[in-house]
């Protein structure tokens, strides 16, 4: 942690004491390259359903580092509600020479699910998960499905896969962009899309489409079991937000890493010290992004509420006062 504290990015604004104490409590896990940030689940304690997202991000080459420590990657697992409020709750940072394969991803997913399961309230609000369905994620996907968490293919990656296989997707995309779903209509909408798939999609792609439709049906089952009167849109049900956050995080980590390996070349030549340094740096910067996301989301909600109040006041002002009746 001492290496992170003295980085240029923290000179003007020192790391607060409560952050340093918080990091000290996680020293053992950070030395092993990971941290779970259970406190970031607290924002989900409001009356909103949520879903998991996980992805791996690659940091640009750290040119000041030894050759074996120039390339790094970050596994990030986040939670998001259906209005786009997102928080990263798990991180693993490792040099690219260390395999970030299915076992590492599964370990992180299990830890997050275990943290969620500690709260019965959170457990009932977990609607599903979104991921890119490539080989390294399949063990985690199977684990989630076995634990009642349906996993949808990230829309952008689904579309790319379908295009690569010689077809253009319209139907799954429409589910993410057009309807407002209720308990009364979601099965009808999904059934209608299924019929369109059977009529217009090549038969060799049926299984891919049916898998997504079944996953979506299961997700809505979870949603409306807990929130039967709510209406939902799927505009945020994808990896886009996390990908943007991850790209920003990777850039920030790269800046700090270049500084750290330049200032402490001897100490950080030790892979163990380097892993602890990079994991700590990644965690600190993630928490800064998480705090910004919370602040911006609160400001957005307050702004929208203000507009609604002004509209109500304008409507009331437009209603002519009732005339008193003459006796």
What is the alpha-carbon Rg in Å? 23 Å
**Total of helices:** 12
Q: What top-tier CATH class of the domain at 2-154 and 238-291 fits best?
A: Alpha Beta
What's the arrangement of strands in the largest beta sheet?
Answer: 1-4-3-2-5-6
Structural class: alpha/beta
Largest sheet, described in full?
6 strands, mixed
Low-confidence segments: none
Chain-averaged pLDDT: 91
Could you tell me the number of beta strands?
Answer: 6
| Percentage beta strand | 5-15%
Describe the global form: globular
The helix/strand series, from N terminus to C terminus, equals: HHHEEEEHHEHEHHHHHH
What is the CATH topology descriptor of the domain at 2-154 and 238-291? Nucleotidyltransferase, domain 5
Termini distance?
83 Å
Overall helicity: 40-55%
Just name the CATH architecture of the domain at 2-154 and 238-291.
2-Layer Sandwich
How would you summarize this macromolecular structure in one to three sentences?
53% of the residues lie in helices and 13% in strands.
Please give the structural blueprint:
Elements: H1 2-5, H2 17-25, H3 27-31, E1 34-36, E2 50-59, E3 72-81, E4 86-95, H4 102-117, H5 120-125, E5 126-131, H6 138-146, E6 151-153, H7 155-164, H8 171-177, H9 186-200, H10 206-226, H11 240-263, H12 271-318
Parallel strand pairs: 2-5, 5-6
Antiparallel strand pairs: 1-4, 2-3, 3-4
Helix pairs in contact: 4-6, 9-10, 11-12
Describe what you observe in this structure.
The chain has 327 residues and is of the alpha/beta class. Helix content is 53%, strand content 13%. The chain contains twelve helices and six strands. A six-stranded mixed sheet has the order 1-4-3-2-5-6, with helices on both faces. Strand 3 (72-81) and strand 4 form a beta hairpin. The chain is globular. The model has no long low-confidence stretch (mean pLDDT 91).
């Amino acid at each position: 942690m001492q290496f992170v504290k003295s980085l240029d990015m923290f000179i003007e604004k020192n790391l607060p004491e409560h952050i340093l104490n918080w990091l000290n409590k996680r020293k053992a896990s950070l030395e092993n390259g990971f941290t779970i940030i259970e406190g970031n689940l607290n924002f989900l304690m409001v009356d909103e359903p949520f879903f998991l997202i996980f992805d791996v991000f690659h940091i640009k080459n750290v040119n000041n580092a030894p050759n074996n420590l120039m390339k790094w990657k970050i596994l990030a697992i986040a939670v998001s509600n259906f209005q786009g409020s997102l928080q990263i709750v798990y991180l693993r940072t490792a040099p690219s020479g260390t395999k970030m394969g299915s076992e590492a991803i599964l370990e992180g997913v299990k830890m997050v699910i275990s943290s969620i399961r500690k709260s019965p309230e959170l457990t009932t609000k977990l609607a599903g998960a979104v991921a890119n369905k490539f080989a390294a994620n399949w063990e985690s996907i199977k684990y989630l499905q076995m634990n009642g968490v349906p996993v949808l293919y990230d829309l952008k990656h689904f579309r790319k896969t379908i295009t690569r296989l010689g077809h253009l997707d319209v139907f799954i995309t429409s589910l993410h962009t057009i309807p407002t779903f209720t308990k009364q209509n979601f099965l009808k909408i999904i059934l209608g899309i299924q019929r369109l798939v059977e009529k217009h999609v090549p038969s060799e792609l049926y299984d891919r489409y049916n898998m997504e439709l079944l996953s979506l049906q299961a997700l809505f089952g979870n949603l409306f079991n807990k929130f039967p009167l709510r209406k939902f849109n799927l505009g945020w049900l994808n990896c886009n937000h996390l990908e943007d956050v991850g790209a920003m995080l990777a850039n920030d980590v790269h800046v700090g890493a270049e500084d750290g390996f330049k200032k402490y070349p001897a100490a950080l030549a030790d892979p163990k010290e380097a892993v602890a340094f990079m994991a700590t740096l990644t965690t600190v910067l993630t928490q800064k992004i998480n705090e910004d996301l919370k602040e911006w989301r609160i400001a957005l909600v307050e702004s929208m509420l203000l507009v609604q109040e002004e509209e109500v006041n304008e409507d009331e002002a437009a209603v002519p006062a009732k005339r008193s009746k003459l006796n």
